[in-house]
Amino acid sequence: MTFLEKIIDKKKQEVAERKLQTFGKHTRKNPIYSLHKSVQAADHISIIAEIKRASPSKGAIQMNVDILEQAKQYEQSGAAAISVLTDESFFHGSLNDLKAVSEVVSIPVLCKDFTIDEIQIDDAKNAGASIILLILAALPLERFQRLYNYATEQGLEVLCEVHNADELKDALTVSPKIIGINNRNLKTFEVDLQTTTELVQQIDENGLTIISESGMRTKEDAELARNAGANTILVGETLMRSENVEKDMQALQVPLSSSAKGAF
Ligand SMILES: O=C(O)c1ccccc1NCC(=O)[C@H](O)[C@H](O)COP(=O)(O)O
């Protein structure tokens, strides 16, 4: 069994338990913000900055982080969106984290979880998310398409995450606005930035938000993603371990050229 299969098995259990609960809905206090619009208007690579206490591949990263201070720093340093890992069992996150973060920032918040059911989309929206994540490696195609339609009907944006050509082909069936290319293989944890280079070449549409996810550490990495045709990067561990978030984010926000695939 791969690690991803283990995560999905646990998620199925959690969703089944969640469906037995009848607690009232959170009432979200923030509006829904558009990541896609902000990316299309930017003249530099956009950053989705992640709140990530721990991960299966790295273990503890910053267990004692003050997530509200971290989120405010991300926003002040120019983040286009904040990703909050809400999975409890493997990432030590929660929907309460997402709710708290979305109440102190005025940019979109991504609910970074392993979404397999509509109820998770309702919960993410009620907690304040503007974007949800659908991972093609974790969903049969028909389920992905249904969840994509459900989330967009709720007014949310959807980050459709792929790691190989087959998943990209499946993701394109819904004509998504936002595609995330994960450089990390979620089955082996191996990270290879060339994944972005290889897959962006297979996207014909212009004007998409194309995110290079995982393994981003330096300005050179951001340039590599930009040169491949991505207009956005998603950065977790590097920013969580950073001693100067503002400086590190400035370095990563490299200028975009109008020839970038996802640009303008
Ligand atoms: O990060 C992991 O170990 C991981 C393992 C299994 C499934 C998902 C995982 N991470 C989720 C992500 O996609 C990353 O948090 C995100 O792209 C940021 O990556 P990084 O900048 O390398 O922390």
Automatic annotation (TrEMBL):
PROSITE patterns: IGPS (PS00614). The keyword Lyase applies. It catalyses: 1-(2-carboxyphenylamino)-1-deoxy-D-ribulose 5-phosphate + H(+) = (1S,2R)-1-C-(indol-3-yl)glycerol 3-phosphate + CO2 + H2O. It comes from the Bacteria. Keywords: Amino-acid biosynthesis, Aromatic amino acid biosynthesis, Decarboxylase, Lyase, Tryptophan biosynthesis. Pathway: Amino-acid biosynthesis; L-tryptophan biosynthesis; L-tryptophan from chorismate: step 4/5. HAMAP family: IGPS_A, IGPS_B. This is Indole-3-glycerol phosphate synthase. The gene is trpC.
